[in-house]
Structure to design on (302 residues):
């Protein structure tokens, strides 16, 4: 089977532009018929496979451009700037995204005979690789399973497990193994990021967060920036602003109420930070998003 087969299957199921949830848990399909503007959003732990068109993702100073036949692995919740770079009506951007289960990855890794991890700094929490034939085959089988809803409950978990095993054993493997290896810098940073995701509203001393994951403050800051492309405080700020946008867009909260809800003491500082990230003040940005939905309209998306 080929990448064209995957594109045909995604295009047949996702007939309209947008982000489509499916009858298979953790699997979503994505279609765009036009190029989109760069938009800040948050990518979560998962695998993206582009079947047609192209996309660009920026994390800190790292810029990744990828297209058909390539896979993007994200190993932590990452604030990125993303946009579709190649798409038109005749050849829309088509992509599948499979959210991954961290606990299942840990269990699978423990049962595999994997080589030891090299001693090196924590790798960046995003990686790009050409799609090998075996992983492509599994991805196609997972999407085609949507045509057999009676078999989804039985077969989808097996195919998803196969995909995770192939990721652990393939080019993306070192990135995932750093994530799931207890005591590795990536694992410790992932714990800190998870804590910040749950507690972004509260002010926290970064030295206390470093102690929480058993790292010295200087080592913690070094590895955090290496994994995420930003400092812990910048990461927390982006989490707050992404959640603020989500609240205003989907719960119709005003900017002042939203600022307090996500941890800002100053509404004016919130407005300045918001404008700096999203390119417009809150009210104008939300109005634009409602009339022109695109990348990253939620607190977490692909």
């Amino acid at each position: 089977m080929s990448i064209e087969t995957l594109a045909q299957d995604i295009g047949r199921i996702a007939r309209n532009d947008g982000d489509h949830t499916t009858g298979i848990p953790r699997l979503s399909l994505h279609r765009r018929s036009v190029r989109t503007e760069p938009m800040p959003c948050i990518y979560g732990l998962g695998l993206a496979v582009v079947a047609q068109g192209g996309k660009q993702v920026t994390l800190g100073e790292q810029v990744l451009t990828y297209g058909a036949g390539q896979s993007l692995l994200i190993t932590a919740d990452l604030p990125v700037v993303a946009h579709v770079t190649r798409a038109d009506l005749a050849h829309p951007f088509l992509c599948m995204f499979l959210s991954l289960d961290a606990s299942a990855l840990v269990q699978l890794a423990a049962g595999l005979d994997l080589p030891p991890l090299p001693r090196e700094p924590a790798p960046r929490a995003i990686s790009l690789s050409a799609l090998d034939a075996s992983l492509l085959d599994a991805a196609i089988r997972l999407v085609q399973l949507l045509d057999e809803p009676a078999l989804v409950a039985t077969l989808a978990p097996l195919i998803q497990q196969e995909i995770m095993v192939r990721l652990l054993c393939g080019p993306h493997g070192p990135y995932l193994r750093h994530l799931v290896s207890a005591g590795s810098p990536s694992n410790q940073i992932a714990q800190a990021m998870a804590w910040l995701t749950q507690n972004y509203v509260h002010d926290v001393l970064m030295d206390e967060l470093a102690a929480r994951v058993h790292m010295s403050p200087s080592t913690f800051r070094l590895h955090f920036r290496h994994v995420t492309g930003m400092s812990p405080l910048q990461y927390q700020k982006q989490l707050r602003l992404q959640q603020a946008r989500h609240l205003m867009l989907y719960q119709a909260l005003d900017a002042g109420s939203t600022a307090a809800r996500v941890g800002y003491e100053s509404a004016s500082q919130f407005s300045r930070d918001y404008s700096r990230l999203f390119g417009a003040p809150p009210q104008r940005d939300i109005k634009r998003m409602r009339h022109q939905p695109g990348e990253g309209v939620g607190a977490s998306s692909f």
Summary: Residues 3-179 form a domain with the Jelly Rolls fold (CATH 2.60.120.280). Residues 70 and 130 are 4 Å apart (CA to CA). The radius of gyration is 20 Å. The beta strands are 18-21, 27-32, 39-43, 46-52, 54-59, 62-67, 70-74, 78-86, 93-99, 126-130.
